[in-house]
Each structure stands twice: as structure tokens, then as C-alpha cells.
């Protein structure tokens, strides 16, 4: 089969490798759609190569099973890459990402992958694989989880910081749910994308974001700010821009941040929420939104055959894309 291999220093190759074999409890999946995620870029840019690619947003069809009745050949599925033990408190409560034996399944930019049968989320027959990989992956799932945990209402004004893939997913959901959305994004390409969704677009290099968002909200500031960029300056912006008694959601990954808790959180009486990955229950709620008319296909801006994986990554890393998909066949 063909698979993408990370070679180090922002280089990838497409190579012929042996087909994988499912272990007991696993299925062999023929990958029909695989999406690039910003979380892959750290490994992509690392100086050392990797035996696998970072692909983890995948959808496809089951072609073989090994000692499991949870899924059968022919099943169409999206994949929850957070695979737990299935026995601990977190797994039994439907949130395996906190399992102490968590296995993060990667390598999805391949024609075939093996995954735990329990991680396969059934994809309805009328949902295309290209759509399913967005509804059942980070793009919508991560954004939906954050919005759900923040408890937003249609009367709220939301500031989304960063319109990369997760930020785009957040804006699309918030607009579908009827919220007024303000977006700050340095890329002109991505500002154009969110403008088409009906968001108010701000260039952080050209305007005072805190001042403008205050002016747009009668001097109060947004009800909620969601940081999808994961940088110290954007996370501080979220805390500073949101109104008194507002809510802040941290979604973008960042390992270190210096804040002033008294000024930014305590005296403003903020609610601050961290949100990571979605659950299977969230996935079914997202499918319910799809049934009500929520659509995301127009946010797929680039598709590349697997033979052009290097070009796909270079294009994605440049930041001038929406969602990027790799076609495996």
C-alpha cells in the first residue's frame, strides 16, 4: 500500500509499505478520506524523521475484522483516534482520552490502517467520506466540544481568535447556531473564508482588536472569546478582550503562558474553560446538526492525491488554506 512518511525538516515522501494486519479487537480500514491537522506540523518540521505520518482525521470502510463483533466488513466509519483500555472509569464514562493507557492512533495518511473496533464511529450512508472526516474529526469535533462546554446562547457575541482549521470549524458552528461572531486572523486568505461565513473579520496587524471589539459590543467586550491559535499573545488577548463576567475557551495548544490572574480573571470574574477532544456522544450530536442543515464541505479548499503529499503539507504549512484533504485512491 501507499503511505506518507515523515522524513524530517519539513519533508515527506510517499512510499510503498506492507499492508497492516489487525490485531485482535481491531479492524482493517480502507481509508477513503484523510485530513491534515495543524497538530501534525510540529512532527513535520522536526529535524528527525518518523516511521509514521501524523494523520489522525480519517474516514473509510471496514474491509476485515479480527475477533470483534463491534464492526463488520462494509461498515462506513469515521475514527476516534483516542483509544483507551475500555475498562477504566474514563473509558466507561465515554471519555477515553483520559485513559491512563491511552493509545493515540496515527498514520492515517495511508491507504489502509488498523484501528480498534471500538474507535470506529458509524457513518450514515448518505454522508460522504469527505464530509464524514470533518464531522468525525478535529475540525468540527474539537470546536463543537468547546462551544458545548462554554454554554453559549444565540444572543451571545463570540470572538474567535485564529481561523486555522479548528477556528474555521468554530466559526462555522457558531454562525449556524445564530451567534454574532468576530474573528481575528492575520492571514488574508483565511479572513476571506470566515467573511463568507458571515463573521466580522479583523486583521490583528492592522487594528486594535480589544478596542474594536469593545466598540462593536457597546463598550462591554464579547461575551465569550475562544482562542484557537495557541500562542501566549492570543491567549492573553482572549482574557483581555472578553467582557466582565464573560467566558474564555482555550482550544489552541500551548505549553507555557504568563498571565495576571488578579487583573485578567479574578477581578473580571471570568469563567475559563479548557477543551481538548470530542467524545462519541458529541459526534452523534454533530450528526444531528448535519440533519438540520449544518454543512462544512465548502471549507475544504484543497485536495491532493497521496502521491503529492509533499505539496499538500507545504501548502498547508504556509497557512493559505482551509481544510486540506489527501485522496488515497
Describe the protein:
The strands form four sheets. Strands 3, 4, 5, 8, 9, 16 and 17 form a seven-stranded mixed β-sheet that branches. Strands 12-11-10-13-14-15 form a six-stranded parallel β-sheet, sandwiched between helices. Strand 14, helix 9 and strand 15 form a beta-alpha-beta unit. The longest helix is centred in the middle third of the chain and has 13 residues. Helix 4 crosses helix 5. The protein is of the alpha/beta class. Helix content is 29%, strand content 25%. The protein is built from eleven helices and 17 strands.
Task: Give the number of helices.
Answer: 11
Number of strands: 17
End-to-end separation in angstroms reads 10 Å
* Percent of residues in beta strands: 15-25%
What does the overall shape look like? Answer: globular
Structural class: alpha/beta
- What's the overall average pLDDT, rounded? 96
Q: Using only CA atoms, what is the Rg?
A: 20 Å
Low-confidence stretches: none
Oligomeric assembly: single chain
Largest pleated sheet: 7 strands, mixed
The succession of helices and strands, N to C, reads EEEHEEEHEEEHHEHEHEHEHEHEHEHE
Helix proportion: 25-40%
List the helices and strands and how they pair.
Elements: E1 2-6, E2 12-16, E3 26-35, H1 41-45, E4 57-65, E5 76-79, E6 82-83, H2 89-92, E7 103-104, E8 112-116, E9 120-122, H3 129-135, H4 138-150, E10 157-161, H5 165-176, E11 180-184, H6 188-196, E12 200-202, H7 209-215, E13 224-227, H8 232-241, E14 247-250, H9 261-266, E15 271-274, H10 280-291, E16 300-305, H11 309-317, E17 323-327
Parallel strand pairs: 10-11, 10-13, 11-12, 13-14, 14-15, 16-17
Antiparallel strand pairs: 1-2, 3-4, 3-8, 3-17, 4-5, 5-9, 6-7
Helix pairs in contact: 4-5
Amino acid at each position: 500500500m501507499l503511505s506518507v512518511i515523515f522524513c524530517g525538516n519539513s519533508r515527506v515522501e510517499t512510499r510503498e509499505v506492507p499492508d497492516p494486519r489487525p490485531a485482535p479487537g481491531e479492524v482493517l480500514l480502507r481509508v477513503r478520506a484523510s485530513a491534515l491537522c495543524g497538530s501534525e506540523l510540529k512532527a513535520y518540521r522536526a529535524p528527525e524523521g518518523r516511521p509514521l505520518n501524523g494523520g489522525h482525521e480519517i474516514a473509510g470502510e471496514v474491509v476485515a475484522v479480527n475477533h470483534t463483533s463491534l464492526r463488520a466488513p462494509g461498515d462506513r466509519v469515521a475514527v476516534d483516534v483516542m483509544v483507551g483500555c475500555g475498562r477504566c472509569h474514563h473509558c466507561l464514562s465515554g471519555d477515553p482520552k483520559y485513559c491512563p493507557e491511552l493509545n493515540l492512533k496515527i498514520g492515517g495518511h495511508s491507504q489502509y490502517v488498523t484501528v480498534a473496533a471500538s474507535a470506529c464511529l458509524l457513518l450514515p450512508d448518505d454522508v460522504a467520506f469527505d464530509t464524514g472526516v470533518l464531522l468525525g474529526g478535529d475540525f468540527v469535533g474539537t470546536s463543537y466540544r468547546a462551544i458545548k462546554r462554554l454554554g453559549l446562547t444565540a444572543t451571545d457575541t463570540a470572538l474567535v481568535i485564529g481561523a486555522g482549521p479548528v477556528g474555521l470549524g468554530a466559526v462555522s458552528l457558531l454562525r449556524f447556531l445564530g451567534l454574532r461572531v468576530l474573528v481575528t486572523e492575520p492571514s488574508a486568505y483565511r479572513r476571506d473564508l470566515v467573511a463568507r461565513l458571515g463573521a466580522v473579520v479583523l486583521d490583528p496587524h492592522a487594528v486594535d482588536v480589544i478596542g474594536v471589539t469593545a466598540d462593536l459590543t457597546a463598550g462591554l467586550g464579547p461575551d465569550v472569546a475562544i482562542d484557537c491559535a495557541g500562542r501566549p499573545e492570543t491567549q492573553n488577548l482572549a482574557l483581555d478582550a472578553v467582557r466582565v463576567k464573560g467566558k474564555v475557551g482555550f482550544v489552541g495548544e500551548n505549553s507555557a503562558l504568563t498571565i495576571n490572574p488578579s487583573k485578567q480573571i479574578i477581578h473580571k470574574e471570568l469563567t475559563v474553560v479548557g477543551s481538548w477532544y470530542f467524545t462519541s456522544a458529541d459526534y452523534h450530536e454533530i450528526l444531528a446538526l448535519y440533519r438540520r442543515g449544518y454543512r462544512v464541505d465548502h471549507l475544504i479548499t484543497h485536495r491532493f492525491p497521496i502521491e503529492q503529499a509533499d505539496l499538500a503539507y507545504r501548502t498547508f504549512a504556509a497557512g493559505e488554506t482551509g481544510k486540506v484533504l489527501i485522496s488515497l485512491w
